[in-house]
Batch of 4 targets.
Target 1
Amino acid sequence: MDIVILAVVIAVVVLGALGGLIVGSRRKKQLPPPPPAAPDITAPPAEPHVGDEAETPREEPRRTIEEVDLPDGSAPVVVEEPPAEAPQIEIPEPTAGRLVRLRTRLSRSQNALGKGLLTLLSREHLDEDTWEEIEDTLLTADVGVQPTQELVERLRERVKVLGTRTPEELRTLLREELVTLVGPDMDRAVKTEPEDRKPGIVMVVGVNGTGKTTTTGKLARVLVADGQSVVLGAADTFRAAAADQLQTWGERVGAHTVRGPEGGDPASVAFDAVKEGKETGANVVLIDTAGRLHTKTGLMDELGKVKRVVEKQAPVDEVLLVLDATTGQNGLVQARVFSEVVDITGIVLTKLDGTAKGGIVVAVQRELGVPVKLVGLGEGADDLAPFEPEAFVDALIGE
């Protein structure tokens, strides 16, 4: 019996020892692996400067975030913009004697008429064929039929009385007759200074392509050169950039431009321009109208409306019709229609430097009974000149 008890005790002890070993091995398997040792980290080498590629990286001081001065956010950073430059005001050259100064430019294309007449008149025998050639020369220059016949008749009579004809005598004779034909006694002053009020009001009219807006800008320069203050009315609201173009001309000489929305009512713009001219005490208001085709009755009626609206504030002192000298006799058709609508008081002939048809000066004056007051002799800003009959004829016949 004792042996049995002893065997049981031994078995229990053995089983307990085996159980302890099994539990211990399981616990060892569940333990996490120890953390790896931290690797040695070395600082990156400093970036090489120019020419340092082959050198050993060297220690350089580095700023930490605590050392950098950061804005505190108490006030916004204001970036000052440079002030916009005001457009430079130009001083136009004086108008006195301007046509004389531009005489060479005019004679470059015009004196074919004068030289042709002098050559024909210098022939030893002036027969009927020669006089017909003289007539053809004048007609080609767009002098017009009636003025040509009058001039030829006077020349024939004076040459017959003169008898012998030296070149100097012929030049003097031709000059006198041409000056008479152009009309030295016509009043060619642009009326911009009415005695009883300010400002003077000038409307500029004409068909498309005659240089009307440019002429208005150049006329502003002429007036400023004569010491007058000018307000520009951009009543051409139908042509793209017409108002911008006129404003640029005005800024160059210090003239203010009144403008409206593109496609707006031109009469309203003209009215506002005159109103501002009166409020600011300007000497002259120049109103640039749309370049209307003279064949469009409705548009011509609208041009008449512009004038009527302006005259609710003050009378219009000048209505200048701008004609392209290169159009010749076609310009007379335009002149007739415009004169019926707005009562033209003066003519501005542009592009007179690029045509040999200077006789249009005579023809258009005869047609309308109004004088040529200004002539355009080039693309320059100061190439618009008051018309002077003597200087013009001198340019025609040359030296």
Target 2
Amino acid sequence: MPLALLALAVGAFGIGTTEFVIMGLLPDVATDFQVSIPTAGFLVTGYALGVVLGAPLMTVLGIRIPRKRMLMLLMGLFVVGNVVSALAPVFGAMLAGRVIASLAHGAFFGIGSVVAAGLVAPERKAGAIALMFTGLTVANVVGVPLGTFIGQTVGWRTTFFVVAGLGVLGFLGVAKLVPEQPKPEDVRIRGELAAFRNVQVLLAMAMTVLGFGGVFAAITYITPMMTEVAGYAPGSVTWLLVLFGLGMVGGNLLGGRFADRHLMPMLYVSLGALSLVLALFTLTAHHKVAAAVTVVLIGALGFATVPPLQKRVLDHAAGAPTLASAVNIGAFNLGNALSAWLGGVVIAAGLGYTAPNWVGAVLAAAALLLALVSGAIERRTPGSGTSRPVAGHTSQPAPVTVGRHRPWGGRGEYVPRASVPRSR
């Protein structure tokens, strides 16, 4: 894998840290600004909504900008947002900083997925995407616990200055390691929007909302579930989240590896197993060891769906992948918000702290059903598994340079060995 993927992973690490670290710092932030915990919770909700809205907005605004330059601009925006949060004199300014940082989130992962997939051979695309997303998963293992520790010992403002520093590293890494790519030509918003007329793209995004929503239905309420039901001490929740993060790392890498070989079977297995494990969590949550093992499995199975779903969107929107890829990232956060709300509804209804697990199981099962429908459509439609040109984009054959002894160009680009025309 080219070093450019490392630069993308560093940026993803910073973004993942700032997204989730606020959950461990809410009491400190609330005390500092003299607001209630529910009010401080808007820092989580505001970020999620910023990702959902910012993914298509920033992608459309940068549609004619070379992808490397756009990635650098997004990392710059991310740094500004975290510095604003760190220096915020009032709660409103803190919220504004969170929203500013969130605007870079969806577009960075969306454009980064397109760049990562273009750096490697076609049969390694999902693996490349998974490697970039490893930065996000490792953030839950290292960045979030470390950021929470720094915030609780030195001050939460220091945490956001550190995260801003990670953004600077990501910016420099993209500038140094990501190869220059030609400025997109004949790219129109109408052409990018045309990708959403592809039923397979829409099905993949719906699977993203429901599948990952199933994960967050349970994980959002892991603290009361583990302390009130499983009997863990409050201080143990941090290490349970580390276990969840380790599961995410492993599942992400396995999902990328197997999605390059058997994409749809990988989705069938991971979504089916996720639904089953979430349903069992209502039972295993009553036992400490079983609960810890289940948390790992939820993280692994949930993130095993990420590379194949992102690759599926790219495959079926190949003529206009950037906007569709970014919107699919927003779909993850939409699923998070939807499932967290549904989990709160069943708890408020008096069904207990384990009730969100059933919500998650139903959501994951619904995602599996959509995957089966998507696979059936693909089998019945000749040529539906291959990408077709999208209106507003050219599909002229481009000459390919022959690679002699290695499949990599001088600046990290993948160069096929065959000297045959291929579509852009």
Target 3
Amino acid sequence: MPEPSHRRRMLVLSICCMSLLIVSLDNTALNVALPSMQRELHATTSGLQWTIDAYTLVLASLLMLAGSTADRIGRKRVFMAGLVIFTAGSLLCSLAPNLELLVVFRMVQAVGGSMLNPVAMSIITNTFTDPRERARAIGVWGAVVGISMAAGPLAGGLLVESVGWRSIFWVNLPVGLAALLLTLRFVPESRAPRPRRPDPVGQVLVIALFGSLTYAIIEAPAASLTEVLPFAAVAVAALLALLLYEPRRAEPLIDLRFFHSAPFSGATGIAVSAFAALGGFLFLSTLYLQNVRGLDALHAGLWMLPMAVPTLLCAPLSGRLVGSRGPRLPLLIAGAAMTVSGLLFALFEAETSNVTLFLGYVLFGVGFGFVNAPITNTAVSGMPRAQAGVAAAVASTSRQLGQTLGVAVIGAVLAAGIGSSPYRDTFVSAARPGWWILAACGAAVLILGLLTSGRWAHRTAERTAERLETAEVRQPVGTSG
């Protein structure tokens, strides 16, 4: 296939970014709507957690399957299917009559969303073959997250106040349809030269691990020990089974050999930490601004702009820095900014003063803006192009798993601290352990960025890529362990 022109590559990048925009915009806008949904649907704190985590949990569980399936049957085909399912799921969410069905329809949305982000990243990786150009493209990709953070809370607040929270899902309909038509016309089809066979046992184990772990965390504050322990035991058993089973397959769902690369392992840990911080930060901020300060959804969205705008501005700068100087500097900036932001809230109760609240939001936005591009670039650049879909899917899974755990853990800590008391009376003290957890997530980004971006780490990435390429040559197509 001839190399696409620069104009065609930019168009493909734009189409892929549209898919990321609707997936990211949906989550950030919905965070602002949580208090309105809580009142209309009579939801508890755990119910609010499930409206967010049902989506991110299904995404995390299916992203690797979607990435490997796209490499096998065609990335364009899977991408278009994802757009159709996501758009249909959005329509169903807007019509949900109760919390239970809303959670179910959010899961339908997520099935489609799982086919979008990792597949789009794989399309970008195979479209932009020059490393510097790819790094810049990934920087633009990361900036879309900033756009969604900037537009999501504000647009969500405006829609909630003027029309109602259901209208948030309507935004996805025209964007999803436009992306579908443009993909059909302009995105080239691509596949991995050596397609991988399905791994149904590995997929079931991943679902069991993520689902049981999330349930145990979210329900722990309200459930008894005997109700939570079985789910915790299932999570542990599923993890052990994955570690034992996957290396025995020639074509596993999760290729554990990827983790022999220090940069790849670091990128995975950084993604979990950074997105756990994001999920917890948005969850705490939304409930504080509306349930404690008494702001309406629109003004709460405006208050989150000091976090969103720096993300928008720093993401493309991070991409350029990754392309010219490598991932270390952006990761150090990200880790330091996110850590200081968490400490402002944990030590100085930053939410109780407008000045410190503004500063805390700005610092978190700077940190999150710098972290996304090095995660993605590190995860995919050291791997053979034939396995780009799987590698990108692992990185995307780490993001969604992190966000799922962030909302689950922070929400559980908040629910345990508040109990049956009104939010206004106990929120600040109940949220403090959560802010400490978010500061620890920032510190993890900083430490992992230091440890996994040096020369030693680069050598492990090179050796891992060589082993993977050698194994691909030796492995007959279509075999399984």
Target 4
Amino acid sequence: MTRRFVALAVLAVVCAGVELVAGRGMSPGVVWDVVNGGGDATERHIFLQLRLPRVLVSLGAGACLAVAGLVLQSALRNPLAGPEVTGVTPGAVLGAVSATALGLAGWDSPLAVVLAACTGGCAGAALLWLLAGRGRGDPAQTAVHGVLVSAVLGGLTAMVLLVEPGELGSVVQWLVGTTEGRVWQHWHLLWPWALLWGAGAWLLAGPLTLLRCGDDIALTAGLSVRPARTLALLCAVALTAGAVAAVGALGFVGLLVPHLAVAVFGADLRVSLPGAALVGAVVVCGADAAAQLSSRLPAPGLDSGRFTLPVGALTACLGAALLLVVVRRTPSRTF
């Protein structure tokens, strides 16, 4: 198990290094000169004030979404209970966009965006909880209600755009998910938030393990099911809100990365939760590096100076393809 953690840590460092040199405007040789203390003022500014915080934010956001997804899947006993399909991510997006449209938050005030996103995420999760009713323990019903809630919240976000068309840029960034333009202020706000709620999720590893076994077994073991599930959902919503406020709604990260983490580290959540954080960081950082490399080689006819592939578009496409492969190879599974 230690070797797996070390291997993933090395992979995270490699992905971070590739992302640092993948962007446009500076060649890998210039980046190496800046790392060694050279380069002019503009090159040092691009590297230290733009590229480096972007890498850190992508690592932190990926870790948040992966842990949130694993917590949700464990608390709800649903393999499809990712932040994207339980109303948490669409609610967080709606909260952030609404606060921006009302002038209460914006990219220059990340704390207000986090608070608005957290409020919207809690509202989305609460709406799913109310609609699911007595069928909360049924994974299929929960998934269906989650898709419904996500669609409703997405429609409300579109209505906000109709009312405030000037917010089109912000809406697109939050809906698709991007790490472009992230600065140190985003990182300084994200890392303590992620550390606080990630530690809270890890402390709930024992109760979450019992919840994965079913409410009856958890009650027999002496666990207060409702408070434990409420705390777990709060951690998941907070982690999702922090990630959404930093990079927007990255598709399929919180849904599929937990399955990969459990496959690599096993079902013991004391190990798989930090493992999921590491896997999520690698996935998002690697996807952002691939997106930047793809943007440097645009299709013929596109303006290479303006073409930028958002990392959220790449994670959504790859995640959908991977989900389709998994479902086709395991048709007997309940999801």
